[in-house]
Amino acid sequence: MSDPAAPQPKPSPAFQARAVARACRKAVLATTLAGENPTPYASLVLVAFDHDASPLLLISRLADHTKNILGHDRVSLLCDGTAGLSEPLTGPRVSLLGVAEKTDDPRHRARYLARHPSAEMYAGFGDFAFYKMQVERAHLVAGFGKIHWLDDYLYAGDTAALAEAEADILQHMNSDHADAVQLYATRLLGKSGDGWRLCGLDAEGADLLKDGEVARLDFAKTVATAEEARVELVRLVKLARTS
Question: Which parts of 48-172 are beta strand (E)?
Answer without folding.
Answer: 48-49, 55-60, 74-80, 93-103, 128-141, 147-150
